[in-house]
Design brief:
single chain; alpha+beta; seven-stranded antiparallel beta sheet; three-stranded mixed beta sheet; 3 helices; 10 strands; binds 2-acetamido-2-deoxy-beta-D-glucopyranose; signal
Length: 184
Amino acid sequence: MKFTTLLSFALAAATARASTVHCDNKQTLSTAYVGQNSGVRVEHVKCSNPITPTGDTIAVRSVLGKRQENVCGATCNTNCFSGAGGGPDPNDCTVIADALLYDSQNIANVFDMNPAQNTSLIVMTYASCESFIVNQTNDTLQYCRTDWSSLVDYIAPNCQATQNAHGGNCVASDGRWFVQVQHS
Ligand SMILES: *[C@@H]1O[C@H](CO)[C@@H](O)[C@H](O)[C@H]1NC(C)=O
Ligand SMILES: *[C@@H]1O[C@H](CO)[C@@H](O)[C@H](O)[C@H]1NC(C)=O
Ligand SMILES: CC(=O)N[C@H]1CO[C@H](CO)[C@@H](O)[C@@H]1O
């Protein structure tokens, strides 16, 4: 997949961020259970503050004239959160990745992150693992479950204790979205 080489390259370079994401006035607007055994929780969450990659100061971008855009396959840069301990069990993350693949075949591969529908922050949780995706623009972005699945499968084992890490993220090269994997 397109981002794989870029991920490997970026992983070596950046490994110095904490994993805490701050959500003010958290509202969970919907909850569903997905995957083959319906064991993975999916929530649409609303925070009153924008969710940005931790320790990152990437400016939020707005591309004029694009109210809706499919960003499947877009490149992103991986950062591991440094320090061993307190990260998710990669085996639990695999269950999330598998649920995303299952849903890609049984619901749809493409999904919307639509600010107007409160779907700009989607959180998936299974046991010790949580992965979320954030739309950092005011426009609707569409992303592919197969890509999200690949990112979870990549970040979880490559940003674990044996790498002196406890989860990580992948920030879109254009700064418009990011995916994070962390302890639930
Ligand atoms: C979005 O969330 C707000 C609560 O923060 C709610 O008032 C509004 O109806 C929601 N919109 C949709 C389309 O669900
Ligand atoms: C997004 O919308 C909010 C609320 O309408 C606004 O405050 C903010 O400046 C907008 N951000 C961008 C990048 O357009
Ligand atoms: C969940 C989240 O962080 N949504 C953000 C999407 O991007 C807009 C524009 O920057 C923010 O206002 C939202 O908070």
